[in-house]
Amino acid sequence: MNTRARPSATCAVLVSALLLAGCKKAPHEHEAAEGPMASTMAMPGAMPEHQGHGDMADMGPGGHGAPMPGGLPSGYAPVPLDQRATERLDLTTALVAEREFKKTLRTVGVVSVDETRSSHVHPKVRGWIDEVFVNFTGKPVKPGAPLCTIYSPEILSAELELLSLLDQTPAAPSGPRNDFAEIERKARSVTLDAARRRLSLWDVPASEVERLEKTREPRKSFTLSAPRGGTVVSKLAIAGMYVDASTELYLLSDLSRVWVLVDLYEADVPFVKVGNTADLVIEGVGSEPISAKVAFLYPTIDEATRTLKARFELDNRAGRLRPGAFVTAQMDIAMGKGLAVPESAVLRTGSRNIVFVVQDGRIGTAVPREIQVGPSVSGWYRVSSGLAPGERVATGAQFLLDSESRIRATSQPGGGHAH
Prior knowledge:
CATH superfamily of the largest domain: RNA polymerase II/Efflux pump adaptor protein, barrel-sandwich hybrid domain
Distance between the termini: 52 Å
Number of helices: 6
Helix content: 25-40%
Number of domains: 3
Order of helices and strands: HEHEEEEEEHHHEEEEEEEEEEEEEEH
């Protein structure tokens, strides 16, 4: 009986010893695991926390950094800096100060006709083109010059109606006044004026109506005249073709003044105003830029190119500027003074803009701070709030500072960091 009990007692003693040894070893293993983790979190050049001296040891309990003062961005903590860390990080800083903001925009465009000096020529009746007088694109024309002749059954019918009314209209009575005859004469006069007006509205020249009334001989076709002087920019009229009111026969434009339309990218639109000056270089004219002012900004943005048109108006009495020519434009826009910080100093993290303010020079503490900035202008941000003139911000190693600051914030008591 005693022999059987001895192995059980021996086993119980061994299990107790192993459990006791495990309980004593667990804290040691935890410390061993915690040490490498802490060393990987530390910034390059920062002193290890277990040494218990230096800047890192002075930052608060556990060496993980001082409690965040009020105003720090959530999720960030100050980062201590020493000479060794500064050298290894190659940390650079910039002074926050006011500067003149000037944005240079470079874009492209084309020469276009002046829409206010252009006319589309359409026939207002159905018919066929008999003869074409202006028969090539680029030909200069004068106001009222004949463009082509059109045979239209509607015009011929209206001319015959006018002749019929002329034959039926009695002369003014020379004898005693007859009220009935006077009323009839006035009614026919009104009808006659309506027939003349109908021909006029169909663009039959007044000279043709006068000829018709004198000769009493209708013509098969009427002449379509130029509504304005200028250059034929487009021509579709061909002898024998059928036309109606939707057919564009000519596009006439006065090229003594032209437009230049340039594209502004959507991000640059807020900076450009009517009256801004630009230097325009037009291909085929020479390398000497032409100075011009923005005359108009179009109200809509092209959905395909995400650009907005800006219009310049140029004198072209010499005829050197041709519609369709390629244009390069450069605008230097003065935006006034403001507090400036380099682009390289700002970490844009979604809806927040974070900078690290370096206190006590390059050796001391890098304090994270949230700031408000405007659009980037030539490598600088205009600071709306969050910084004061004379402060210094880190312009190098921001991502390392950002990582260390976040780790320190989560490693503090209540920060949610678990080993």
